[in-house]
């Protein structure tokens, strides 16, 4: 229906705006993650907590990625 | 409200159903969020992450900051302006306006705040580099090294840090602070486990990456690699001002690390990193007089720092030493393959060392770039370097010691020097040195295998222990061309092995060049050549005794056997040896006798009138007339006459000699010296034979003339004397001949033949042959020790000749007299027949006078003979005395035989001395 379509439009626009802002601010969030964050925030999560969680999760993935990489690196002498 | 949702429940909300209330929804979404990030994780990891996330969020339910949308927007703008992105700030304003105009979001503040806190300064360096650096730091202790040496580091430190870490975890409960996580606990499977007692009050790190991810979340909070510092055990201060966010209690080392020193530890670290490479730092310079690195005296440093610096600087010193050696050697063109491989091995080790240094450098670099802002745990401190470089130092020390030991050596010597260093109890050192030894000995073993399988020697730098003399021609190849260079024999190859190796290669070359036998070695040797890689060389050392020895033995056996086969079949070595015996050593009796018969009239002439071709003709006649004709024509071809140098007054007997030509491979065994020995022995034997011959003649004369001279009774005395003397001489010569033939020749020949039959290689044959000749020469009294004896013997021979002469004159005179008397009688008879007086008074008177003269000459003859006898006997006695005191047993036995009835003993007081217990008569009486 029209209201739904209008809603969807608005939502989409909002998301675009937010995505743009997120891009300007170099947060590194992709659309999907951003949408989840928005939903969480709408539901009243504490943004500080969420942000720290996201950071930690990122680091963990990085760590794991690097861990995987290091297995392929040539051994070093120490 | 703290929620602990079991993982399974969370899964139910994957689809995002919000039916179960507020918190559940959050849980579901959070799970999805976590899922997004943790796509790499296994389930258990994800579960842990999720639980963690939930816990965090649950525990920080209420925001600490005011919910002011406008404020946040302003903050964002300010941030953008601060980053000098005004355009972006304007853009943001626009976007914000748009956002506000749309009424979709209710909680704009929340999302904006979130975005702000997640934002990153694009100018700031990404964290990735640091994490890589940290990653390298992490990786160092764990992995195998490219050199075969594997240093087994302790893989896990004691992991009982949970209790300590939980403390800090609680202290870092506040997540509200901006910026990067401030609670960084460093984990490490450290390079070496520093005893915990050294660092009291430290906050220790949790273990390494993989481990940390597996740990229970409740026990710790830090992520190792995400901490942008290398994970080291110590988190000592470096003197840099520490930021607020550091919660870890700092350790104070020895008290005076900050503030008052002019040179900070950071500078020292920088300098040290340069010193590690042998480059002078700003403050730490090479002090040539003391040959060490020292910190500038002007700098005020605490003693501990100075000490630590010195200890670290040792590494640079060691590095310099090794580097100097390799650089010097690379310029040296004559260094040779072994030396080059040694340098290559050293170079390889240095490369590893440089890698370590580059990692350290990158660490330093990172800190520089990140600056002070991060307030991170600083990474490189002197103490850390100490710990880290402990093992490299040991390694470098070993290498430096090796370098010292190997100064000025090359080739096999160098290999020996390195091998000497493997004899250490320290397994670390031993494996390192063994690795180097494997590389270093590879060229030597290459040489060796080529030599024993192909006989080729390509050794431009004189490193191998077999030396080839290019000036030697093929005829002396076996004896002179190849020698052992003793200094180059590596200590893991014994002398016996190296001798065998020399022999094998020599045999192959001999076959190729002298025997013209180009059989490839593969035919000779069924053994496969070893693959020539350094690994094989290294393997060789694990089983040096057996495998190597086997190889050499196999090659030796096969090559020598083949060589002997060729020599015997193609070149008839043994047959030539027998021919020597038959002709030069008078083995072929009938031939020698006949030859002597034929030569007798020739050789009685003065030596200057002899012509070689005449004698050769006679020789051939002799050959054809005796059994010698059935010999191998090859051998007969080589038989020849040789005329020795003529001295004035020589008869033919003195210059005549037989000769045997040798060439080719045979000449290796019958060298020129050997042939000269043979000729000397021939000379001796020939003379003895001649004496025998003469005495036979004398005896013949006796027999013939005895009957004739029966009518002259006055001669009987003389004749009798003559006979007696002749018999004495015959006896003497008989015994001598017996001695020569049986004691000397036959025995030695037998020995030689046995040895030759059993010989395993050409060297054995040559040695046996030389022993044979030596024995013969000694026994034939031809060596320098027996000169006196020989002279005595010669004197005896001379006497015999004298006797012959005397006898000849006597017989001549006697026969002449007889003739005349017979003539007289004849005439008398004839006259009587004619009717005249048989004999006139004058004639009778003449006859009587003549007879009387003759009879008067008899005593002269008698006395002459007597003198001769006396002389002869004196000489023989002398000879006997010398014999009985000689050291050779067989000569002593000869004396017994010569004096079997003690005829001489009766006359010679010296001979009467009884034999002592040792069987020797002393000559000093």
From TrEMBL, chain A:
Domain of life (superkingdom): Eukaryota
Main location: cytoplasm
GO biological process: gamma-tubulin complex localization; microtubule nucleation by interphase microtubule organizing center; mitotic spindle assembly
Transmembrane portions of the chain: none
Keyword set, alphabetical order: Cytoplasm, Cytoskeleton
GO cellular component, one term: centrosome
Intracellular or extracellular location(s): Cytoplasm, Cytoskeleton, Microtubule organizing center
One Pfam entry name: MOZART1
Cytoplasm keyword on record: yes
Family listed: Belongs to the MOZART1 family.
Record-given protein name: Mitotic-spindle organizing protein 1 isoform X3
Gene (name only): MZT1
TrEMBL record, chain B:
Keywords: Cytoplasm, Cytoskeleton, Microtubule
Major localization listed first in the record, in broad terms: cytoplasm
Residue ranges annotated for the Gamma tubulin complex component protein N-terminal domain, each copy included: 269-570
Compositionally biased spans, kind Polar residues: 231-248
One Gene Ontology MF term: gamma-tubulin binding
GO biological process: cytoplasmic microtubule organization; meiotic cell cycle; microtubule nucleation; mitotic cell cycle; spindle assembly
Domain Gamma tubulin complex component C-terminal: 573-904
Gene3D superfamilies xref list: Gamma-tubulin complex, C-terminal domain
GO cellular component assignments: centrosome; gamma-tubulin complex; microtubule; spindle pole
Record flagged with keyword Cytoplasm: yes
Region Disordered, residue ranges: 231-259
Name under which the protein is recorded: Gamma-tubulin complex component 3
Species name: Alligator sinensis (Chinese alligator)
Organism classification: Eukaryota, Metazoa, Chordata, Craniata, Vertebrata
